[in-house]
Amino acid sequence: MDVAIRRADRNDRELVVRVLDEAFQGDPVSGWVFPGEEHRRATHHRLMAAFADTVLAEGRIDLVEDGTACALWLPVPAAPVAESAAPAAPAGAADAAGDEAETLRQEVDPENGRVELIARLMAEAHPADRAHEYLWMIGVVPGHQGRGLGTALIRPVLERCDREGLPAYLEASSPRSVPLYERLGFAALDRTLDLPDGPRMWPMWREPRG
Q: How are beta strands 5-7 and 60-64 bridged, if at all?
């Protein structure tokens, strides 16, 4: 599929937030974090804006030229050797992630503890023993899904990962997205991320291909 893709910059912030907001309004995880359609429509965009700001500052956002889809990538370094014996995040990193999760809740929806909880749970589940590229989010606006835009966005970064010998990681937020990622070389880890009284997420890892 021939798709025009460019790297987003600060001038694209509002467009990226709109794409993510529209793409994830019906996502089961977003529905758990922001129960109630009216509240979700009023608040969900703030969380997407916080994510976009982080990745614009520390990673890269690839944007389909016509504004129908985007992918947020964050480079993740390996934890210090002494702390990386376990595959999950070490205690110091977990403390820092907890502080960031609390700040996120205060900025996005102060009375909503689920904003902080999901950030903590995702940080705890995130592998820390090897440097990798983290596909934080990929969003395709309704009406354009199922046309291969997600694959077109992801494949060039995975090709670079293969050239550089770099793994990649993501959390699939719905069962229908798992086969897509498997076709791209990701494999589900041996643990799922089960949100309390909510949906399941599938942490997935991809080894670089030779």
A: antiparallel
